[in-house]
Structures are given as structure tokens and as C-alpha cells.
Design goal:
InterPro entries: AAA+_ATPase (IPR003593), ABC_transporter-like_ATP-bd (IPR003439), ABC_transporter-like_CS (IPR017871), ABCF (IPR050611), P-loop_NTPase (IPR027417), PWI_ABCF3 (IPR058770)
Helix content: 40-55%
Family: Belongs to the ABC transporter superfamily. ABCF family. EF3 subfamily.
Pfam families: ABC_tran (PF00005), PWI_ABCF3 (PF26051)
CATH class of the largest domain: Alpha Beta
Protein name: ATP-binding cassette sub-family F member 3
Strand content: 5-15%
CATH architecture of the largest domain: 3-Layer(aba) Sandwich
Number of helices: 22
Radius of gyration: 34 Å
Number of domains: 4
Largest sheet: 6 strands, mixed
Keywords: Acetylation, ATP-binding, Nucleotide-binding, Repeat
Number of strands: 12
Distance between the termini: 74 Å
Structural class: alpha/beta
Strand order of the largest sheet: 8-9-10-6-11-12
């Protein structure tokens, strides 16, 4: 395959070395060119002068396009810089013998250029301006916040319901929304839908990843779908986001009414202190203090602390930032936020529970539901398939092991000691244990991300590990689309290859070109799987891989792991995945990791007996 140097020499054999060096220097920065037209803008004028009108503008454009294509190919496959010999190599003896000879062979021909110096200067200025514009564009892209498409909802309004709500006579805690649509950008998630929720019932919302389950809940919580104003709604996210907020403060923030009142109080006091008050601040402050007293805002920190303590958070842990917690602890934090808000919800429940008229309404609703027509069976969707590539050579044991490994973050708090673990390409191992027991730390020791304080980690020289983190979303660039994500991570392949890789995990069509931040939790997990498997690892270490995945995808994941010819170690709380995949169970507790021969059934019996002794059963 010809390089741009070959094309330049072939098309312009009379080019002098000065211009040759200039043009090749421009093309050496070819990673910045986006198409052949940009190459023409940079050097087309110079080439036109070099050709001495022997080539027209179209010819020059074609040559620039050829050089652009070879340029991109060289950058994709790791081009090597061409070495250009500008002066002949002459031995010292030859130099001495010809020292006084001024023959024709030793004379240097003056390199006169036929190029207009002004045109050359103009081309250089244009190239410099192009680089500056590109750098400015990249810096703006990095600094500016990502603007995502937002979900929207519309529904048919009922004049009767509006009149009842305005009159204050509607005190039913049932929710009925008719003929509503929910969209995300240009994509319609729900159309002409109806939703009926009877107070006191428990509902489960199921469906494939990306069909709009979370979006529907957000539309209800934000009241984009009209819900009677006297009904209080608490939206518990899939997982509390990890940031610099303390655990206790995160729970307190779930009470939005208290937070808004405290914020307003702070603002009003600041106005009074600055002397910018208009006289109404004192009146409003009095109203705020009355409301804060009504909701017992001063007792909120103590109540939040008691709830966290009941879920296993020590006083020290309550002051830790949410980003320091593992996935299991973040889920406990989400539960604490729900329990903290339950006091206000319970007021409505109790008011409803002991009202005889309301109880009669419930019975009539139940009878009405019994008379409804039988639901049609759900149409079965296409089967989800996942595939982990295994086109690698078989490795001979030992593959991966820890010998007498000791580890701690602080010498006064030893986390592990005497760890002796081994795995090979036949391994199907699951690590279980309480939240915070160190399961993720064991995985990082196995991968070599953490260095043992004592003992040895041994790994095969050809071992290639694919790691799926329980906080995989934090490792994805949310500002780019899935195709660009793979391009940045694994450059040098075609767009078709990236799309094919993503398509193997259900990210197809326009999903692959949407910003990763706009995808659902399950879709982000699929993108993370596609990224993990792209380099074809021969060993997978998976930390809570089923988070956010639907049931069909979990089954597909189990099938893919069983077909995979390499080794697998995973941390999971999903009993079904453990039973489908794992042949060996490791329990992480009390600074040790031990194997349970009886598998998951024996582990469940151990937990059952432990809960019985502690009085939970």
C-alpha cells in the first residue's frame, strides 16, 4: 500500500527538498484532518504551484484525497515515520581524497523554489488557524455540560376530575391516569396508555431494559403526569449516586419540604443581615418557623441517624461520603431515604385505614376490579442473546492464584490475612458475603490492581482479564455515544466493527448514537459489557453484573458465561445467576475467604441459622 510520501514523489517528481519537507511535515499531523478537503485547504495551493499548471484543480483534489486515505490508514495501523536521506553517506577516506577537488559531483545545486512565498505563508496561516479552531472546539466540548434530551409526558385532562380537585372534595388515594403518552426525545415510549393504582395495593413494574420503566416513575414523581395534589409521592432511585455528600446528609435531603424551608430561611436571614430586606422577611420567617415546628425539623437528624444505625451504619460510616460505599451499602442508603420519608406517608395511610367510609370504598373498588375482563397474555419478545468471544489460545495452569496474601489499608485494621486462592480457565466461582466484607477488595487483589502487603500474587504471563465493576457507570464517558466510546477506547477499527460489537449486546440502531448519559441503567450495563469484551479477554471478573439488568438479560448472561471457554469469578447477590453459572462458592467473612463445599444451598442454610440465632426469624 502506497504511503502519502510515495504519492507525493510519484505525482511531483520535480519537487525540491524544501517543499517536500514542508508538505510531509504538514501531513505528519494528519490525525487532525477530517477529510480530503481539509488536506487540500492545507497544501492544495502549494501543490498547484509545484505542478506548474500541469495539473488542474480537480487533479490536485484527487491527489489530496488519496493522501488523506493513506494518512488515516497509517494512523489506524500505527504508521512509522518515513526516513528521508537528504545527504549521501561519505567515508572519511573519500572526504580526505577529494578534499581539494571541486568537481561537478561535489557541487551543490542551488534549491530555487518556484512557489510564491506569500501563498506558502498564507497556507501556513490557514493551517495554524485550523488547529486553533479545533483546540478551542475540543476545550469547549470538555468544559461545557452535556445537554440531554428530556423525557416528556402528555395526557388527556378530565374536566370532572379538575372540578373535584379544585373543590377539595376529592380525597381518594387511588390514582387513575387515562390516555397518556410518554416520550424521550423523538422516541415514543408509551402511547395511549392507562394507569390505575388502588391505594393499599403493592404493584411491580417489569419489562425489558430501555422500554421506559424508570422514565414512567420519574414522570409520576415529578408530576408531569397529573396526580392529585393531596397524594404524597416518594421516588427511590435504583441506587444512590456516589458523590461528596455525607450519608446522614443524603438521608436528610430526601425530605424535600424540610430542605426547601431551611434553604428559604437561610436566604431570608442573609437578606436581613445584608440590609437588603423589604420588611416582609420577618413575616415569612415566622411562617417558616411554624412549618418547621409542625414537621419536627429539629428532630430529623436524630431520626435519620437512628434509621441508618438500624441498617448497619456506624456513627463513623454516617459521616462518610456516599462515593466511599459499595453498591450494597448504597442500596441500604436508598432504603434509609425511603424509611425516613415514611413518617409523612404513614399519616395518609393511617387516616385512610381507620375511616369506615374509605374502607367501604376499597371494597367497592375490589369488586369492580373482579369484574374487569381477563388480561391478554403478554406477547413474547425476541430472545436476548449475549456472546463472550473466546478465540484465544488455551493456557496451561497455574493461571491465577494468591499465596498467603495479607492486605490492609491501615495497619491497625487488617482486612485479610493468609489468603490462599486459585483459579483456572475452567473456574466458575462466586464470591458471597455481607456488604463491606471486602469482596471487591479480593477481586482487585486477584486482578493486581491492589498490591498485597504480604504474600504473593501469581498470574500467567498471557492472562488477559476483563473486569466489570459494580460502579461501571462511573467508568463510562457519559458525554459521548456508545460508538465513540469504543472508538476512543479501542482506536483503529471501522465503525461497522464498533456497531457489530455493540449490537451483540442489544445496543443497535439509534441507541448506538445516543449519548451514554441518556441510556437506561440496563442499557449502560450492556455498553459496559461491550467495552469489556472488545479486547477478547480469556478471564472475566464480574462485580455485581446483574445490577439494572432485566430478567431476560440475566438469563442470557448466564448462558453466555456457561458457553465461554475461559475462567469466571463473580460477586453477586442474584441467587438465580449463582445457581445457573457457579460451580464453586467462596465466602468472604472475618478477614478470610473460605470455600463452601455444599454450594449455595449450604450457604443459605448457614444464613438461615444465623438469622434464627439473632432473632430475625
Amino acid at each position: 500500500m502506497a504511503t502519502y510520501v510515495d504519492i507525493l514523489k510519484s505525482e511531483f517528481p520535480e519537487i525540491d527538498s524544501e517543499l517536500f519537507d514542508y508538505i510531509t511535515g504538514v501531513l505528519d499531523s494528519g490525525a487532525d484532518f477530517e477529510d480530503g478537503e481539509e488536506v487540500y485547504d492545507a497544501i492544495g495551493g502549494v501543490l498547484q504551484d509545484v505542478s506548474a499548471d500541469s495539473k488542474n484543480e480537480d487533479d490536485i483534489r484527487d491527489i489530496c484525497l488519496q493522501m488523506f486515505n493513506t494518512l488515516k490508514l497509517n494512523h489506524h495501523h500505527g504508521s512509522q515515520k518515513q526516513m528521508i536521506v537528504t545527504d549521501p553517506c561519505v567515508s572519511s577516506s573519500s572526504v580526505c581524497a577529494a578534499k581539494d577537488v571541486q568537481g561537478i559531483w561535489m557541487m551543490k545545486r542551488p534549491q530555487n523554489t518556484t512557489v510564491d512565498a506569500k501563498k506558502l505563508e498564507k497556507a501556513e496561516a490557514k493551517l495554524k488557524a485550523k488547529h486553533e479552531r479545533r483546540n478551542e472546539k475540543d476545550s469547549q466540548k470538555a468544559s461545557s455540560p452535556l445537554v440531554l434530551e428530556e423525557a416528556s409526558a402528555s395526557q388527556a385532562s378530565s374536566k370532572k376530575d379538575n372540578r373535584v380537585d379544585q373543590s377539595g372534595k376529592n380525597r381518594s388515594y387511588d390514582i387513575r391516569i387515562e390516555n397518556f403518552d410518554v416520550s424521550f426525545g423523538e422516541r415514543c415510549l408509551l402511547q395511549g396508555a392507562e394507569l390505575s393504582l388502588a391505594s393499599g395495593r403493592r404493584y411491580g413494574l417489569i419489562g425489558r431494559n430501555g422500554l421506559g420503566k424508570t422514565t414512567l416513575l420519574k414522570m409520576l414523581a415529578s408530576r408531569n403526569l397529573r396526580v392529585p395534589g393531596h397524594i404524597s409521592i416518594l421516588h427511590v432511585e435504583q441506587e444512590v449516586a456516589g458523590d461528596d455528600t455525607a450519608a446522614l446528609q443524603s438521608v436528610l435531603q430526601s425530605d424535600t419540604q424540610r430542605e426547601e424551608l431551611l434553604h428559604e430561611e437561610k436566604t431570608l436571614n442573609a437578606r436581613i443581615a445584608n440590609g437588603t430586606a423589604d420588611g416582609m422577611e420577618s413575616v415569612r420567617l415566622s411562617e417558616i418557623y411554624v412549618k418547621l415546628e409542625e414537621i419536627e425539623a429539629d428532630k430529623a437528624p436524630a431520626r435519620a441517624s437512628v434509621i441508618l444505625a438500624g441498617l448497619g451504619f456506624s456513627p463513623k460510616m454516617q459521616q462518610q461520603t456516599t462515593k466511599e460505599f459499595s453498591g450494597g451499602w448504597r442500596m441500604r442508603l436508598a432504603l434509609a431515604r425511603a424509611l425516613f420519608a415514611r413518617q409523612y406517608i404513614q399519616v395518609f395511610i393511617d387516616r385512610f385505614r381507620y375511616n369506615a367510609n374509605r374502607a367501604a370504598q376499597v371494597q367497592s373498588k375490589l369488586k369492580l376490579l373482579e369484574r374487569l375482563p381477563e388480561l391478554k397474555p403478554i406477547e413474547k419478545e425476541t430472545e436476548v442473546t449475549l456472546r463472550f468471544p473466546d478465540n484465544f489460545e488455551k493456557l496451561s495452569p497455574p493461571i491465577l492464584q494468591l499465596d498467603e496474601v495479607e492486605f490492609y489499608y491501615s495497619p491497625d485494621q487488617r482486612l485479610f490475612s493468609g489468603l490462599n486462592l486459585s483459579a483456572d480457565l475452567e473456574s466458575r466461582i462466586c464470591i458471597v458475603g455481607e456488604n463491606g466484607a471486602g469482596k471487591t477488595t479480593v477481586l482487585k487483589l486477584l486482578m493486581g490492581e491492589l498490591t498485597p502487603v504480604g504474600g504473593v500474587r501469581q498470574a500467567h504471563r498471557n492472562l488477559k482479564i476483563g473486569y466489570f465493576s459494580q460502579h461501571h457507570v462511573d467508568q463510562l464517558d457519559l458525554n459521548v455515544c456508545s460508538v465513540e466510546l469504543l472508538l476512543n477506547k479501542f482506536p483503529g477499527r471501522t465503525e461497522e466493527e464498533y456497531r457489530h460489537q455493540l449490537g451483540g449486546y442489544g445496543i443497535t440502531g439509534e441507541l448506538a448514537t445516543r449519548p451514554v448519559a441518556s441510556l437506561s441503567g440496563g442499557q449502560k450495563s450492556r455498553v459496559a459489557f461491550a467495552q469489556m469484551t472488545m479486547p477478547c479477554p480469556n478471564f472475566y471478573i464480574l462485580d455485581e453484573p446483574t445490577n439494572h439488568l432485566d430478567m431476560e438479560t440475566i438469563e442470557a448472561l448466564a448462558k453466555a458465561l456457561n458457553k465461554f471457554r475461559g475462567g469466571v469469578i463473580l460477586v453477586s447477590h442474584d441467587e438465580r445467576l449463582i445457581r445457573l453459572v457457579c460451580k464453586e462458592l467462596w465466602v468472604c467473612e472475618n478477614g478470610k475467604v473460605g470455600r463452601i463445599d455444599g454450594g449455595f444451598d449450604e450457604y443459605r442454610d448457614i444464613l438461615h441459622e444465623q438469622f434464627r440465632k439473632e432473632g430475625y426469624l
